[in-house]
């Protein structure tokens, strides 16, 4: 199967399945659920970091890249996972945290201890801190009293940035890839790669994204890590990447990744001033057809391989809560969002639980959060700057905070939703919605889960058109989104209504409705109901009047 056909299932391991009933998901739990994952129809399982960690930033603060966090299991469990996955023709994708290590990583401990150590140069130091801000808030420089120096951290202070200007540090990072490749891993998510190089400007300002030396450093790393691994793929996580940069960095002289995540939607609904620490209730569904997305979808030079789409991930809240409807149109909105995602050119990622329409759990107080980004925002926006009251911050985080997507998977309606045998979970449980569990939805042919399965099968069945066809996306009047895919004399037309309103669209001739977010098989007759989205197949010879 070609890369562009692949579907990735993303797991946040601490919340997927807790086999030993200690309140935390684990690798054994994932092994137990491999048949479920296979049955969904996906090809690759992406695991958020599984390495030894203090879990200050959900495992993105790595203590040791070569061992499994005790809470998740052992290296033996991991080997078994790879073996059992391969038996089912599933691949594993690991999350490689390149930009920083934990401040308790042995490299950093050595660096603190011995100024002549090689490791001292693995990190970035200064005597005179600039005003640089960390992405999680506060200064990006942390003082070390016994050294009378500051170290640089773009994220939490427990995540110390690697000095990518040092070839030895790049070499050390490359060895991580060797280790996991040897164990059978062929897919790698390269975390936060747009940040590895930094321009510390003379005027004290800092540019930490797509900085001048980024390509040079990453290409050196890729050569060291992948030169002898032609069957490995690396997906770059670089938020803020646009069509022009995808063209530049996924091909040719400046290539730094096989594929890039498509971030065109992830800010929709965020606050204007404080991003995901706020909420903009006036966001507009037509934002899904924003200029950035259209430029990606409608540029034929951007290949399907080079784009990887998602609705939700571990850095966002649940898509249905944010953009869809949690009540009457729960199913239809979940299905519409799924169809809209799958209409996009490229690889597709399904975040665990999305396939059963999981919603934000709802947070009622500050102490229910577990995410460092949430902690920092309370400290900065509530305690220090008093920009928001504590209640306001809790509301905003209940909509956009990252913890919304990090709570346990809902397998059935037994205790703790079947996540474990009843032990207190590390983070709160989701809302108790009887229909929102795997067991319930497996029984219902019109469930969100069965919709995802149909969608995946259909995409393969029509792959000539769906994956290889010429893609065109546009916003129609009334905010309906239209995507057409043309291949020879065949055409697929996706009409997406991700609004809660009825929409009128002039009738057109079509051959067949392949899939609809409504399950009543009603014929299309000029009206799209709330969250009604449909894939039509059209034989071009019967040219209708689809608005192109
Ligand atoms: O996220 C990266 C990330 O959030 C930034 O790249 C992004 O550029 C920024 O928010 C833009 O303002 C990854 C992981 O997905 C995330 O979970 C981690 O917290 C983060 O890296 C640090 O490792």
Question: What do these coordinates show?
Answer:
The chain contains 15 helices and 24 strands. It has helices spanning 27-32, 34-40, 75-87, 106-113, 167-182, 214-226, 243-249, 291-297, 319-323, 330-343, 372-384, 390-400, 438-443, 448-461, 463-466, and strands at residues 7-11, 44-47, 51-53, 62-68, 91-97, 100-102, 125-126, 141-144, 149-152, 159-161, 187-191, 199-200, 206-207, 233-236, 259-261, 307-309, 347-351, 470-475, 481-487, 490-496, 503-504, 512-516, 527-528, 534-539. It has an eight-stranded parallel barrel with strand order 1-2-5-11-14-15-16-17. A five-stranded antiparallel beta sheet has the order 18-19-20-24-22. Helix 7 links the parallel strand 14 and strand 15. The mean pLDDT is 96. 1-O-alpha-D-glucopyranosyl-D-fructose (TEU) is lined by residues 57-58, 60, 97, 135, 155, 191-192, 237, 239, 314-315.
